[in-house]
Design brief:
Blueprint: E1 6-7, H1 20-29, H2 35-54, E2 62-63, H3 71-78, H4 95-103, E3 113-115, E4 122-124, H5 139-151, E5 156-160, H6 162-167, H7 177-198, E6 202-206, H8 216-232, E7 237-241, H9 250-253, E8 260-264, H10 271-278, E9 286-292, H11 302-313, E10 321-325, H12 344-348, H13 353-368, H14 376-389, H15 398-404, H16 417-428, H17 445-455, H18 461-482, H19 499-502, E11 505-509, E12 516-519, E13 522-524, E14 528-535, H20 541-549, E15 557-560, H21 562-567, E16 570-571, H22 577-597, E17 602-606, H23 618-636, E18 644-649, H24 658-663, E19 668-671, H25 681-686, E20 692-695, H26 708-719, E21 727-728, H27 740-760
Parallel strand pairs: 1-10, 2-5, 5-6, 6-7, 7-8, 8-9, 9-10, 14-16, 15-17, 17-18, 18-19, 19-20, 20-21
Antiparallel strand pairs: 3-4, 11-14, 12-13
């Protein structure tokens, strides 16, 4: 082999190297940037993103992966999928309506938001209604033209596949999937025909839903969709792109009338490769080989990747192979260039989006290189990973040894819940339908500036702690004035619910600019777990103790759970995720015990990301749930019977894992329900759940303040399926991103709704 292989990318981070995208959005929402300025800045960011990829010499550069909020929302408005409550009457959807669907407003609730498969990215869930789909504007065509005119790039438009779009939408019964596909196909095909007429050579249709468990009728529907596209758009070459796991139906997929198929060879468990080696790959199809990990930040072992690529190349004819990342690079930071404050050994072992594209280029060249002439970059890669693995923090710690002795670790409370709850009720004497919040309160500019000054050593420790005490005191005072029953300290000292703990545990490092998009303009900077996770000293006791000293009401200690820390971090790849989770659990167990010893006997261990790590295929899910639940229980099971363990989960589908939620054995769990309009309650209409539970009664991700009647309606519906004695009343999630005025107003309404519900039940 002496010719460079084709190279491609599937998607690039939207946010800009310095999060310019986030600031542009928030400036527009706040009225500090007009529409003209908004578009100019967004175009500048997009051009920079395109030129970055162009500089890597890629053969396939994605366009239409850039968005003002979310790619699924883009698809919805492109086809006029706008719920009636927004007053939409056809035609191109306005930017204000677009953002109202994403964020809500004072007049109308936002669309539901949930996780994009098993990632930490959240998408806006399209609500399919009775309005007939229409092509309101051809977004992929506009993106193609823009890239060509502004960056000289012959881009490959990226569009969510129709099957995946409908599978992830709501508003119709699952049995109507075929009917809905028929409704959407004319507009979808029109969009592709306009691309064909423009002279577009390739289009990338993303179908990650094909890596889930697909029923036979669904596979037939996929075949129908792609045969219809091939018939109506014969001149456009389609790359059917999958990612995140293996495709069980690969033998059928290769028979589809598409010009190429993209597969994930990183997160497939070896199944895609095994299936490929049994196939006779068609001589008229390209294979997009996703072999650079698009979901983690470590440099690839190029020696091993070269071996994998050679095996893949033996399955396809020359000229048919494209080297690419395993999925869109949306899930990793932009560039590792600025991370020179990290220890050199760790910095050299990192690869963010830009570095991953360089690895794609390098792998293509390596496979085509003349035998005996090794690229120096290959040895550089080997040396960087060898240096990382020699770090003493990578093995031998007490935490690692304990985690290895998993069978001997206690993971059950001394009393079962039904006995435990009696002694807890006697101790706490809470009213019926107790009210609480999820943990964080508004992080104002003043709070963020104080943290910055402290980090930069412009403030001494004493001044910083005094400032934080003032914030905690004000927070406790407000909650008491509002009449909330179980209080929190507000978490003003925490930048992020994972980063805060990672900074205090051994085995973590932190980037300067390693931001990734979570939802909308919300970006997170995941910690990097590079070594054994170890407990150093108490992390939350000081603030929790101070808050409790200000009130006679109970104050919850607030921790992030082991699975959320795992799933919201970039994790070392030399150990299994289960092993790392158990190390984290042991460290958190020490913190739980320290809180209890300090007199904090309500402790919330949040697991919003529990479902996020769930494998996409049913056959693999129970194993994950078993060790994830075990990790939570290892962290929380050594407390006294009277100590109440809370947990929180948000924006996930839980109907298929109620048993695992119950197995956590948390005394109280709070779950989001407001954006899904109480649909989760349906799960409890058919499944028993006897522990304490709080179903969120308002959406904190929107600036809208719901009225009392709206919350009363959600409470009333929940009480039709749950016992009043087990029901708690709380917001959906933490209040960190909200302002103080809207927070106070919403919580006041929440307490009023709770009081009204108690009165209806004959309690005060």
């Amino acid at each position: 082999m002496n010719k460079k292989l084709l190279t491609g990318n599937l998607g690039y981070p939207r946010i800009g190297a310095g999060r310019e995208w986030k600031r542009c959005l928030e400036g527009y929402w706040a009225g500090k940037r007009d529409l003209t300025s908004f578009y100019e800045e967004m175009n500048r960011i997009l051009i920079a993103n395109l030129n970055k990829q162009k500089s890597k010499g890629l053969d396939f550069i994605p366009v239409n992966d850039f968005t003002f909020y979310d790619h699924m929302l883009d698809m919805a408005v492109m086809f006029g999928v706008v719920p009636p409550r927004y007053g939409y009457d056809g035609g191109e959807v306005s930017l204000d309506t677009y953002f109202a669907m994403a964020r809500g407003s004072q007049k109308v609730a936002a669309c539901e938001m949930t996780k994009w498969f098993n990632t930490n990215y959240h998408y806006i869930v399209p609500e399919i209604g009775e309005r007939e789909p229409e092509l309101t504007v051809n977004r992929p065509l506009k993106a193609y033209r823009f890239a060509k005119q502004e960056a000289g790039i012959e881009g490959r438009p990226v569009v969510v596949g129709l099957y995946t779009f409908l599978k992830l939408s709501k508003g119709f019964p699952a049995k109507q999937l075929e009917e809905q596909a028929e409704r959407f196909l004319p507009a979808y095909i029109q969009m592709l025909q306009e691309l064909e007429q423009e002279g577009v050579a390739w289009v990338q249709l993303d179908e990650p839903a094909l890596v889930t468990d697909c029923a036979e009728e669904e596979l037939k529907l996929v075949e129908h969709i792609y045969y219809a596209i091939a018939e109506k758009v014969p001149g456009l070459r389609v790359m059917l792109q999958t990612y995140f796991e293996a495709v069980d139906a690969l033998p059928r997929l290769v028979q589809l009338p598409v010009a190429g198929i993209g597969l994930d060879f990183v997160h497939d468990g070896g199944r895609n490769l095994a299936a490929l080696e049994k196939l006779v790959w068609p001589k008229d199809k390209m294979l997009g080989a996703g072999i650079i990990d698009g979901r983690n930040v470590w440099r690839s072992d190029l020696t091993e990747k070269s071996k994998l690529l050679r095996r893949i190349s033996q399955c396809v004819a020359p000229g048919l192979l494209i080297v690419q990342p395993s999925c869109s690079l949306l899930h990793v930071p932009v560039s590792a260039d600025s991370e020179n404050s990290l220890p050199p050994v760790i910095h050299e072992a990192l690869a963010f989006a830009d570095e991953k594209l360089e690895e794609v280029r390098l792998l293509s060249s390596l496979l085509a290189a003349v035998a005996g002439k090794e690229d120096p970059a290959l040895q550089e890669s080997r040396d960087a990973l060898a240096d990382l693995n020699r770090l003493p923090e990578r093995s031998g710690s007490q935490s690692a040894k304990l985690a290895a002795q998993l069978a001997d670790l206690p993971d059950t409370r001394s009393l079962p819940y039904q006995e435990r709850v009696q002694v807890q009720q006697a101790k706490w004497k809470l009213p019926l339908l107790p009210t609480t919040t999820i943990g964080s309160f508004p992080q104002t500019a003043e709070v963020r500036q104080a943290r910055q000054k402290w980090r930069k050593k412009e403030w001494e420790q004493e001044r910083y702690e005094a400032f934080m005490k003032d914030q905690i005191q004000a927070c406790i005072k407000l909650q008491e004035e509002l009449g909330i029953d179980v209080l929190v300290h507000g978490e003003f000292e925490r930048t992020d619910m994972v980063e805060f703990f990672g900074e205090k545990l051994g085995g973590f490092v932190f980037t300067r600019n390693g931001w990734v998009q979570s939802y909308g303009s919300r970006c997170v900077k995941p910690p990097i777990i590079y070594g054994d996770v170890t407990f150093q000293e108490p992390m939350t006791v000081k603030e929790s103790q101070f808050a409790q000293s200000l009130t006679v009401k109970p104050v919850k200690g607030m921790l992030t759970g082991p699975i959320t820390i795992l799933n919201w971090s970039f994790v070392r790849d030399d150990l299994s995720r289960e092993q790392v989770a158990n190390q984290i659990a042991l460290a958190l167990r020490s913190e739980v015990e320290a809180l209890e010893q300090a007199g904090i006997e309500m402790i919330q261990v949040d697991e919003p990301a529990l479902r996020e790590g769930l494998p996409l295929k049913a056959r693999d899910q129970q194993s994950y749930l078993d060790w994830a639940v075990r990790a939570f229980r290892i962290a929380t099971s050594t407390v006294k019977d009277t100590t109440q363990i809370h947990t929180h989960m948000c924006y996930c589908e839980f109907h298929d894992m109620i048993d695992s939620i119950k197995a956590l054995d948390a005394d109280v769990i709070s779950i989001e329900t407001s954006r899904s309009h109480g649909e989760l309650i349906e799960s409890f209409e058919v499944q028993d759940y006897d522990h304490g539970i709080g179903l969120g009664v308002y959406d904190i991700h929107s600036p809208r303040v719901p009225d009392v009647a709206e919350m009363e309606e959600l409470i009333g519906r929940a009480l039709r399926v749950l016992e009043p004695k087990q029901f708690w009343i709380n917001p959906d999630c933490g209040l960190k991103t909200r302002g103080w005025a809207e927070t106070a107003a919403a919580l006041r309404h929440m307490v009023s709704a709770a009081e009204s519900a108690r009165a209806k039940l004959g309690h005060k």
